[in-house]
Amino acid sequence: MISRPLPFFSSGLRLDADLHLPDDGGAGAPYPVVVPSSGFQGLKVIHPERFARALTPRGYAVLAFDYRGFGFSEGERGRLIPQEWAEDLRAAVDRVSAVDELDADRIGLLGWGMGGGVVVSEAAEDPRVRAVASVNAIADGARSTRAMHDERTWNSLLERVMADRARRTELGRSEITSPWDIVRLDLDDNTDGYVGTELYRAPGFGSGVTLESADMLLRFSPEAVAHRIAPRPLLVVHGSTNELHKPEEARSLYAHAAEPKRLELIDDAGHTEFMFDEHPTFCGLVDRLDDFFADALDRAPVG
Predict the structure, then answer these.
(1) Range of 127's domain?
(2) Which of 186, 200, 209, 240 is the most buried (most CB within 10 A)?
């Protein structure tokens, strides 16, 4: 894999990004492009680069980037707004469309978790995107967040969000809270364990999040616009035992989308415990993604 910096601007903010290319001496250029979109608290050094390592040997270029406010990207720290992430993703599409080694007519989006909803939202408004893969995604922010909480923590979150609306109008700033007050991990042991042992290795992971972020997540509903992706193909993949974002999210996203569309559940897989480069479940996921993108983006077989 050949990698080089490829920063770009979104809403005037400089976002940190790296372009990853197949190590074939340029034989496959102009390459089809896959742009991965991270999930909640996601950083480009985590799953986007993991997908880059898996997909570049198969002939794809991959752009891994950090959203505004994350990693070395500019922007307000703690501001985690999926609607703004969709703007950042659109800017990423703008950037790869102008690189000579890349094929602007063969761009696919790959979203993980919250990013799985972001790719749907962006592609619904961007006809340049040829194909969309949404993995372990949220389809409706309010429903998926409610499903992570018990009655007590859900009511507490709603009360804090309401109070923060008044705070923002008075003080101009939103209260910072733990990210796990919004996305509650402790009800999903597998994901909680993976996050604690693996994701916290990434510098900056797990930092505080504004309550305005929670407010905007509850208003985020990718399924409401999923039908606009057609006639471009949508692949929805979800762990059958995902306790963080329930399989209901995948089924609802699929139901709201128009043809052509595919829904595939991964047997005995949760949200993220299998995300290791050599894990059989992850390798199987990459095979599914490659089959989908190879057909949608007309990628020639890699010998």
Answers:
(1) 2-146+221-296
(2) 209
How far apart CA 75 and CA 121 sit, in angstroms, is 21
Domain of residue 28, CATH code:
3.40.50.1820
Q: Report if residue 136 sits inside a domain.
A: yes
The alpha-carbon radius of gyration of the chain (Å, integer) is 18
Q: How far does the chain reach from its first CA to its final CA, in angstroms?
A: 16
76 part of a folded domain: yes
- pTM summary value: 0.95
At 190, list the tokens. Answer: 């597998």
Tens place of pLDDT per residue across the chain (303 aa): 999 999 999 999 999 999 999 999 999 999 999 999 999 988 999 999 999 999 999 999 999 999 999 999 999 999 999 999 999 999 999 999 999 999 999 999 999 999 999 999 999 999 999 999 999 999 999 999 999 999 999 999 999 999 999 999 999 999 999 999 999 988 788 888 988 888 888 888 888 999 999 999 999 999 999 999 999 999 999 999 999 999 999 999 999 999 999 999 999 999 999 999 999 999 999 999 999 999 999 866 665
How many DSSP H helices and E strands does the chain contain? 9, 12
